[in-house]
Amino acid sequence: xxxxxxxxxxxxxxxxxxxxxxxxxxxxxxxxxxxxxxxxxxxxxxxxxxxxxxxxxxxxxxxxxxxxxxxxxxxxxxxxxxxxxxxxxxxxxxxxxxxxxxxxxxxxxxxxxxxxxxxxxxxxxxxxxxxxxxxxxxxxxxxxxxxxxxxxxxxxxxxxxxxxxxxxxxxxxxxxxxxxxxxxxxxxxxxxxxxxxxxxxxxxxxxxxxxxxxxxxxxxxxxxxxxxxxxxxxxxxxxxxxxxxxxxxxxxxxxxxxxxxxxxxxxxxxxxxxxxxxxxxxxxxxxxxxxxxxxxxxxxxxxxxxxxxxxxxxxxxxx
Length: 319
Ligand code: CIZ
Known about the structure:
- This protein is about 45% helix and about 15% strand.
- With about 325 residues, it is α/β, with parallel strands linked by helices.
- Strands 2-1-3-4 form a 4-stranded parallel beta sheet, sandwiched between helices.
- Helix 11 (about 210-215) links the parallel strand 9 and strand 10 (about 220).
- Helix 4 runs parallel beside helix 5 and helix 12 runs parallel beside helix 13.
- It is globular and about 60 Å long.
- The relative contact order is 0.17.
- It binds (~{Z})-2-methylbut-2-enedioic acid.
- (~{Z})-2-methylbut-2-enedioic acid binds near residues 32, 47, 48 and 120.
């Protein structure tokens, strides 16, 4: 880093980002779990599905994806003609790492005829081995829509699969992966938060463990929580059982309501890796380009598009 870059103020960095954005015809998108300063500098914030749709539909030629690797890959899968940049390439996802394409192939051999439903928190190679993807926002609807006579392998998140199985009364083969951040929300932590804020509505993400989910007032994805919180009257208090980054958006959208994080452990270190400097460097040096081999991209795109069709919301993509 040069001396002048070192001494730049936060405001100067933001100005440089704006200039680079115009020069590159770029758009910046940030996941709901990103640090607040990244959410604030982004053009759009949302969940991985919202953001991939935005990436596919934008007229910008460069997409700076402030999130983790699988999200950048999903955008690249849907937007082959655009350049997708991940400011910090080391930002991965432990949950996605729980399943490899080879393991999915082995599982399919063991259960011939089973349909593979894969959470978007998975690598492009795993998506390419899947029949249909889902997000935490639509997992229940996707499972519900599948022919009841078909066996389902649900990967890689055990907790989301368990939740979808319970809601749909389907007996599914569940993968043994989990998000280590959401798994940290213990029943003890839930009870302690309840004691501290007895009047609050407890919202929880379906990536939390089943025992914790039993104690929730409302269960939903980040986009569902954003919608639900908006619908509640002014003065409502909430305890939020998901990654702490979501509280920034919830508070911004609802200044007349109160939000508490359910546990101080709900911090995903991967989601906190990107700084405004990284966004600036990403645009300046056009780094780090997310690329998905074409044979994998085409197969993974079919699984992502199958999900978009099931949910009645196909993405407008280039090919
Ligand atoms: O789908 C996403 O973006 C994730 C990881 C969580 C959520 O509920 O939005």
